[in-house]
Write a structure and sequence with these properties.
The chain is of the alpha/beta class and 441 residues long. It contains 14 helices and 13 strands.
Length: 441
């Protein structure tokens, strides 16, 4: 497809009751429905009504910063939730985070294969290595695995999982009742994987899935993360604050992908955006101010301290960050988010209170407040100027933030020829314009 006919890819990143850390306090949200499956089914149906490529649930294996009292904490395990969503939707892709550090390849390969069958080929896996010591503490560890070791393990994990998905041929099931043959045993094989981190015999105990493999997604932007994404990922969720930074990341990852013999166009880059939408710009800015006023400062301070790997509780809120911060090398969690936040604070000379307000909507992802036309203009600029293949849409409040995007921004993008008006494929890979992987015998 030529550049003139490229279209955006749009993923709805759903987080109850919205992405702003004060969303749960806003009167238009429904925080009491955090464990109501119908709430998430309704959100998915809204995204599908907008013809979005996919919905996505992040996941962690611990309570964030142990701040149970200051925000909606906990909730559904996402693969279970997506199975419930699959049965009330027909087209929308279903992407879940799952950790390579605190799982085993056979287990996850089986779960994603099951979701792909249940949904008719709509499963996607956001591959993470997990970023916090709190998660390690829930899995028999006093400390988190070292950053580069986590990515080394993740690479082998993905290789094992893909071998398992390939362990059944597409035509392995012959279902010959007369001869009494269910499957051709020559077309189902053990993988006999023996590596540094895993020993897995196989085959998978789930038949070949509609997509071959689930869509492989990745969300890290550190050096290790970018290299991993370039090698394996088919869609990349990322965070940049400026067009120039977006263009740099886009070019960097596409170039790395080429070095692995991959087609750059088959690696879709989707920066996160938190759109605060109003019928006028003033209305959108009022909503942004409302949410800022509702922030629980202690929660925001704990979140910022975690991102920067330093306890900021003793510093004045209306003063700057400490002169001396840890370096990215000192961080054993989310390295890229540390760098983004530190650079944002220095570039705009923000106080600690101002940084907390800036991060409230997107935790480092770009926040855009404006009319539907202004939001669409920003998306089009990044798309046309080589900073994005689409966007990871992070509504600040739910359900209205998603409804406003679907009902008011999407029609503008459709009118401009930048986004589909109908689904043209059946699987998540179809939506993203990606090939079904050829099975490796």
């Amino acid at each position: 497809m030529s550049d003139d006919h490229r279209q955006l890819h749009l993923n709805a990143f759903l987080m109850a009751p919205g992405h702003h850390d004060a969303a749960w306090r806003h009167p238009k949200t429904q925080p009491h429905r955090a464990t109501d499956v119908t709430y998430f089914q309704e959100l998915a149906q809204t995204a599908e009504r907008g013809r979005l490529d996919s919905i996505f649930f992040a996941d962690g294996l611990a309570i964030w910063n142990n701040r149970i009292g200051s925000n909606v904490s906990g909730g559904f395990e996402p693969l279970t939730l997506l199975s419930a969503i699959a049965v009330v939707t027909k087209h929308i892709g279903l992407i879940s985070t799952a950790s390579t550090t605190f799982n085993e390849p056979f287990h996850l390969a089986r779960m994603f294969a099951s979701l792909d069958h249940i949904s008719g080929g709509r499963a996607g896996w956001n591959i993470v290595t997990s970023g916090t010591e709190a998660e390690a503490n829930n899995f028999n560890r006093d400390e988190h695995l070292e950053h580069s070791l986590r990515y080394e393990r993740a690479a082998e994990f993905v290789e094992v999982a893909t071998k398992l998905w390939d362990s059944w041929a597409d035509d392995a099931v012959v279902l010959d009742r007369t001869a009494g043959v269910y499957a051709d045993t020559e077309k189902v094989h053990a993988i006999e994987h023996v590596g540094k981190h895993f020993k897995v015999r196989g085959p998978l105990n789930v038949q070949r899935i509609p997509q071959g493999w689930p869509l492989l997604v990745q969300a890290g932007s550190s050096e290790d993360g970018k290299e991993f994404a370039a090698r394996y990922a088919e869609a990349i969720f990322t965070a940049q604050q400026t067009l120039a930074d977006g263009q740099t990341f886009y070019k960097d990852v596409k170039t790395r992908a080429e070095r692995y013999g991959r087609q750059p166009g088959k690696v879709k880059i989707l920066p996160g955006i938190c759109p605060i939408i109003g019928s006028t710009e003033a209305e959108a800015l009022r909503l942004e101010d409302e949410l800022t006023e509702l922030q629980v400062i202690d929660y925001g301070l704990a979140q910022l301290s975690g991102m920067l790997n330093i306890d900021l509780s003793g510093y004045p809120l209306d003063g700057p960050l400490p002169d001396v911060l840890p370096t990215e090398d000192d961080v054993n969690g989310n390295k890229s988010r540390f760098t983004l936040v530190a650079e944002l604070a220095r570039r705009d000379r923000l106080t600690i209170r101002q940084i907390i307000a800036r991060l409230g909507g997107g935790r480092g992802h770009r926040v855009i407040a404006g009319t539907p036309e202004q939001i669409a203009d920003q998306l089009e600029e990044w798309f046309r100027e080589g900073a994005a293949d689409g966007f990871n849409v992070m509504p600040p409040i739910l359900p209205t933030g998603l409804e406003d995007f679907v009902d008011h921004v999407v029609p503008i993008l459709q009118w401009r020829g930048l986004f589909r008006t109908e689904y043209t494929g059946q699987t998540l890979r179809d939506h993203y314009g990606l090939d079904r992987p050829q099975r490796i015998p």
